[in-house]
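Re: zinc ion structure - here you go.
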Amino acid sequence: MNIILLGPPGAGKGTQARRLVEERGMVQLSTGDMLRDARTSGTEMGQKVAAIMDAGQLVTDEIVIGLIDEKIRNGNAAGFIFDGFPRTLGQADALNELLSRNGAQLEAVIEIAVDDQALVNRITGRYTCGNCGEVYHDTTKPTKVDGVCDACGSTDLKRRADDNEDSLKTRLMEYYKKTSPLIGYYYARGDLKSVDGLQDPEKVAADIAKALA
Ligand code: AP5
Ligand code: ZN
């Protein structure tokens, strides 16, 4: 089963993708994580996209389509969760083509619907474990022991350079200009299912499970 998690920055795409990986053995393909890995490893592409990402703008379709192409080629029986991809109509067309070229198809597009006002608090309070990727929040999901990841014990907890109010404003504008048209596109294709992302993460997960049943 191949699915897309669609929603604005802070909607909870990464949080829900991690649960689907644990519960169903699916593979999470987050273009944001792939781009951040490229930056950390200092590749030429990583250096090229760093300033664009920190400002909250989208990187080119060509770069992200190339990243996804490479992953889809390797295949995977339990299916892929596309997290943060596609983000433009061009990327959506490319995904159709890449999947059909590999004899696969899209089963569902889950829109995680949230209200913009909730996003500032979610984004500015977020931190993640640099070792295992677990996602935390200052008030709604802090680590049990200060500075130590609950999941793996690492003390490498980080905040993202684009998780500030200025970059978030640009990320939201990019979302409404370029990504939100995908909601209508997938609705028209009959693939769209919408869940209320303002509920607590357990309830969001239960609604996603229902939508996928
Ligand atoms: P990316 O990494 O994809 O960031 P994003 O879309 O802005 O999404 P986020 O990771 O910020 O949010 P999320 O929905 O995953 O929320 P999370 O679960 O962490 O992209 C970063 C940048 O890379 C882009 O700006 C762009 O430059 C580039 N890029 C990436 N893909 C691209 C593409 N395809 N094309 C072009 N450029 C691309 O949750 C957020 C917080 O809220 C956490 O603290 C969490 O604990 C909390 N939370 C989650 N769920 C709930 C809940 N139900 N209730 C309360 N709190 C919750
Ligand atoms: Zn960890």
